[in-house]
Amino acid sequence: MSSDSTADTPLELIVYLKGVSLTHPLPKRGTVRIGRGTQSDVRIDDSSVSRNHVLLHFDGEGGIELEELGSSNGTQLFPSGNGQEEREDTQQIKLNWFVKAGNRIQVRPGDVMRIGSVPCVVQPATGEAPKAAPPVDRASRPPSHNESRILVDPEMKRVYDLAVRAAKSDIGVLILGETGVGKELLAETIHVNSRRVGGQFLRLNCVALSDSLLESELFGHEKGAFTGATHSRAGLLESTSGGTVFLDEIGEMPLKTQAKLLRVLEERRIMRVGSTRSRTVDVRFVAATNRNLQREIARGTFRGDLFYRISGIQLRVPALRERKDELEPLARHFLETFCRRSGVPVPELSPSAIDAMRSYAWPGNVRELKNAMERAPFLSAGGPILPEHLPQTQLEEDLFPENEVTDVLTNPAELLANYGRRSTSDDMTSTTKNLPPPAPLPMIDDQAERDRITEALDQCGGNQTRAAKLLGISRRTLINRLDSFGMPRPRKRTGERTGDPW
Question: Which helix (H) or strand (E) holds 467?
Fold first, then answer.
C-alpha cells in the first residue's frame, strides 16, 4: 500500500467484520489490494472474500476507482444519497449493482462496497494520533470519548461513581459484564481519572494470544530465548511502566501465565523470557471478563489467589437491555457521530424505530447498537430510520422455537387444562396408561379462523413469524393452516429486503 503524506483530505476504509468495525488508513495516491490473502494490503479474514478480491486506485487528486479482480462472490456498490446520480463512466449506479470483473467504477466517500458479504465504507479519516487524555474533574462521572451525557441509568451512574473513586488509588479493579457492554470504556475512565493519566493505556486481549506468545508479549524476551527471538525485546508491562494495563477477557488466560502475572502483582517485578534478572515495573492493572471467575476457580481453570488480587473492587456493567433509558441517547450519539464522520445527512430516528429498539433484546449490547446505527443511514437511503432498518426481528426464530409454542389457536392455559400433564419421553411408557384420554380440541369455525389469521398477518405486515406469535401458535403450524385453507403465503410488506448490504 503506497501513501502520500501530502494528502489534503486523508481517507480511511471501515470494514464491518463479524460484529466489529476495523479501520484502515488509505493513501492519496497508489493502489490498495483488498482480499483474504496474506499479501493483501487490507486483509479481510472472511470465507466470502477471495484471496485477491478488489483493487482501490487513488489518482492523487481525490479520485477513487474500484476494480473487481474476478472474485468468486463478486463486489457490489451501494452509492450514498439516492444512488441515482451520474458517474464519470456515464452509468447510473443503482442499489445492488454488481461491479463486473476487470471494470473500474468510481467510488466516493460514503459509498458502501460489499466485498463478498463484508460491507466496507470509504470515508474521511477521523484522524489524529492517539494521545493521553487530559485530566478531568474528579467530582464528575465522565466516561471517556465525550459520552458523559449518556449516563442516564441510575445503576450506570453508580458504577461510574465507583470507578472514579477507585481510580484515585492503585487498587485492583475487575470489570464484569457481557460482551459489548462497554467494559473497555469503563477501564479507560479509570485510567483518565487516575494519577497515571499522562501514561499509556494498554489494552491486551487475552483471547487473541497463545500461551507462549502471551507470556512473551507480557514480559518480553531475551535474544535467543526461543526460535525467532533474534533480538531482546521489552514486554508490554515493562514498556507501559507508569500507565494502565487493561487485561480484557482475563478468564481466558492460561494457568501458567496466571501464576507469573500473580507474581508481578505481588512483587511489581517481571522477568523476561530467557532472562535470569528481574526488572521493576510500575503499572496499574484493570481486568475484565464476561465469565463467572468463581465458577472457573471451582473448575480449576482460574487461580483463586489471582482472583482476589485483581478484584479489590468489582464493577458490573449492566447489559443494554437492563438500561433501556439509555437506548435512545446512545443511538442518537452513534448515529450523529457516524454521519458527521461520513459526511452524510443525519436521518430522523422515527418514534416507531425507538419503540422497536426498546422491544429488542440487543444480545450484542452497545457494540451491536453502534453497528446498527452505522448501518441504518444506508438502509434508509436518506429517509427516516424505521423499524425495518433495525435488527428488531432477526432473532425471532431463535427466540420462539416451534417446540416451545402451542400448536392450536387457543389459550395455552386452556390447552394444558384439556390435556393434563405433559410427559417426557423417559416416563411416557409408564404413565400413559394412567392418564385420562385427552379432551377433544375446541371446535373453531373455519371462516373465523381464516379471519383471525388474516387479521394477524395484517397487523404484522405479512411477517409470518410475528403473526404466529400473536396467534399463539408456531410458524410451521401457521404455514400448515394457510396451506389447508388454500390461502397464499404472504410476503412481508415492510422490511423484506434483497441484496441488503448489511
Answer: helix 464-471
pLDDT band at 304 (very low <50, low <70, confident <90, very high): very high
Calpha distance 114→76 (Å, rounded): 5
More confident residue, 140 or 65: 65
Q: All 3 cell numbers of residue 474? A: 408456531
Half-sphere exposure of 212 (CA within 13 A, CB side): 6
- Give per-residue pLDDT as tens, 231-266: 888 888 888 889 999 999 999 888 888 988 898 888
Residues 143, 160: contact at Cβ < 8 Å? yes
Please say whether the beta carbons of 316 and 177 come within 8 A. Answer: yes
- Give the Cα separation of 315 and 223 in Å (integer): 40
Task: With both helix axes pointing from N to C terminus, report the angle between 327-342 and 351-359 in degrees, rounded to the nearest 10.
Answer: 120
Neighbours of 444 (CB within 10 A): 12
- Tell me how crowded residue 476 is: count the other CB atoms within 10 A of its CB: 13
- The amino acid present at 397, given as its one-letter code, is E
Q: Are 257 and 216 in contact (CB under 8 A)?
A: no
Per-residue b or e along 389-420, where b marks 16 or more CB atoms closer than 10 Å to that residue's CB: bbbbbeeeeeeeeeeebbbbbbeeeebeeeee
Pairing relationship of beta strands 118-124 and 112-115 according to DSSP bridges = antiparallel
The whole-angstrom separation of Cα 211 and Cα 207 is 10
Q: How far apart are CA 130 and CA 127, in angstroms?
A: 9
Q: Is residue 136's pLDDT more than 50?
A: no
Comparing CA positions, the residue from 358, 368, 353 lying closest to residue 322 is: 358
pTM of the model: 0.52
